[in-house]
Each structure stands twice: as structure tokens, then as C-alpha cells.
Amino acid sequence: MTRSVWLKADDTVGDWETRKRRITSGLEAGIDWVLVDEDDVERVRELGDVKIAAFRSGADVHVMEAEDDDGAAALADAYIVGKDGEGDATVDLPSDLSGSADLTTLRRGDDHTNGSYVRILSKDYEAFAEEAARDGDHTIVVGEDWTIIPLENLIARIGEETDLIAGVTSAEEAKAAFETLEIGSDGVLLDSDDPDEIRRTVEIRDEAERESLDLVWAEVQEVERTGMADRVCVDTGSIMDHDEGMLVGSMSRGLFFVHAETAESPYVASRPFRVNAGAVHAYARTPDGGTTYLSELESGDQVQLVDTNGRTRDAIVGRVKIEKRPMFRVSADYDGDKVTTLLQNAETIKVHTRDGRTAVTDLEPGDEMLIYYEDTARHFGEAVEESIIEK
Prior knowledge:
Elements: E1 4-8, H1 16-29, E2 33-37, H2 41-47, E3 51-55, E4 78-81, H3 101-107, E5 113-120, H4 123-133, E6 138-143, H5 149-158, E7 163-168, H6 171-179, E8 187-190, H7 195-209, E9 216-236, E10 244-251, E11 254-259, E12 274-279, E13 283-285, E14 291-293, E15 302-307, E16 312-334, E17 337-344, E18 350-353, E19 356-359, E20 368-373, E21 377-379, E22 382-384
Parallel strand pairs: 1-2, 1-8, 2-3, 3-4, 4-5, 5-6, 6-7, 7-8
Antiparallel strand pairs: 9-12, 9-16, 9-20, 10-11, 10-13, 10-15, 11-20, 13-14, 15-16, 16-17, 18-19, 21-22
Helix pairs in contact: 1-7, 4-5, 6-7
């Protein structure tokens, strides 16, 4: 599931200058969507690159054809019904939902209206949201003096029919929405002017997105000098913590934890954005759970960072440096299976052993080091049910 943060910035939050400040704070924090009125779509486009959802002002109002500087229609990425309609209780819900104007608009099947906004005022509105979810790509639900129970009901009943977006007013509420029923909402709609609250909500989204891996201890069998090879340094656009690095290895089933160059040295300055990852043939783990060859990485690609507890996050590759360097072949055993990789013969390359950060030059047979072990074969980086021998 890909989580998202939406920011509410329609006319109910203030005049355009107030809305503009809120949107700008959201852009700087890294929000995914802005929810505005139709009239503001073109102005938001001028502020920055973000997905825009626009409230339709009524079920029977056609999408406005505002034009940008090139004369092309400035359309939103999604149009949402419900404001000034049945969704926000401006218009009473019909006793028979087949007569709903909002739902009729959703069911027209045009390319514009593809989401709904519903204030959960009672069980009837909960049922209305369920019905809207059948026909909308996005279903935004906002609680009114409610507990988490209505959100639990909607998560359980809606499933994958729609992206369920929960209205929140704080990062704390966003965390609860992302954790409800251990599944959580697909996104949150934040209604806040506080830049810190917006930033914290985005951080919570990132935390909810992170994969957690089970790293295991493998026993070092051999550390052998192998001569020269083409070595890859991966310079990311992120500053890594002292316990972070990447998973790399010659065999996809056994990837070695290699620390980022965060440690100071008498001879070399720290490079906390860098992982000296290994030889060009080696695999690196990617954010989608796949693998890629180190030699194929280039600026703009994404790699997965991981810490010694298995917590992951994504990073953008800024630069890849490939140079000839002397190498070690490191072999380790996990549960009777031998896995290997090539790492540069240098004191600055650190792996993680029972003793903590350990230079590869200090590794000895019998040491235990962290790896990620996955008993599966891979084809073009994807796990497959196939017999493949790597040695």
C-alpha cells in the first residue's frame, strides 16, 4: 500500500493568501495532494509540482475550463463531489441512495469526477461513504466528534475498491489513521496551517511506508584477497545515520549489510551520504523489494536504505562512482547455506558484526555478521519460483 498525505486548502480555511501559505508549507514538506476549489487549480499549478484534487461546486456543475499560459485547460488531477452537497450535509441524504445527486455524478463515468468527500455524521453517512467508494477512485471521510470506530468499519468494508482518505487535524491523528486495524487508511487529509504539523504528518507517512526486514547473523567462513575489480560507490541524496547502510551481495538470496561511510577517520573524511557497496556485478536491494545490479544504478534511481534493526527507507541516487580497487571475497554461512560478496579491501568499508561496526579488513573466520537472507530465486530482480544455482 502506498500512503499519501492530502492537504485541505479550499475556501473554508481562509482567503487565498492564507491558502497559499498553507499550500507552500505543504509543498516544502513533501505532501502528495492538495484539495482546493475549482477556481484555484491554475494558481496551485503555478506554486509547484503536486497532485491537485478540486471540489466540484455542485453535482450538476461542469468542470471549469480555466486556461494556463499556453491556452490549455488547467485541469485538476481529480475532481471530488460532496462539498455543498450531500457529502457535507448541505443537502439532505435521500432515503433511497439511488436518488443521490453526488452518487449520480460519480456514476456518470466521465474523466473528471472520480472521488467523494463525506462527513461521517451518523451511520447513514457511513453507508453513504461505502456506496460512494464503489464508484470513486478516492473516498475522503471526515469524522465529526467520532472515535476510530467508523474508520475501522470503513477499512473493513471498503477493502481495495478505493483509496480511503481519513480527515485529520494533527500528525497524532494521522498516525492513528495509518495504524487502524493494522491496515490503516490509504491516506490522510490534513486540515492544519501549522508548518511543523504538516511536516510531522509527512514524516509519519514515510514511517508508515517503511518496510521492516528480519536481518540474521551469518558466520564468516573466509575472507580472501581476490585482486582488482570494478568497485561501485553509491552516493545518495540522503544523509544516513550511524546505524544505516545498504544490503548488497553476489547472491540475491543472501545480501550483506554494509554500513554507510558515517564514521570519521584520521585519513578520510566521513561521507554520510555514501555506501561503498561492492563490485559491479553485485545486487543491491531496491524499495519495491526487488534487486538491481550495482552497475545499472544511475542518478535519479532509488535504492533501499536499511538500519541494523531492519528498518528501511528509500533514497535517491545522486551519483555512482565506479573505480578499480583491490577487493576481498567474503564468504559466510547461514543455516548451512554459503553466501558471498566482493567488498573493497579498505579500512573504511564497514560491516556489522556482533561487536558492532567492523572494518572488512578486520573480519576473521568465526565472526558473525548481519545479512538479509531470502530463500528464493530471482529473475531480472523479481522473486520467482524457479531452481537457480548461484555459487
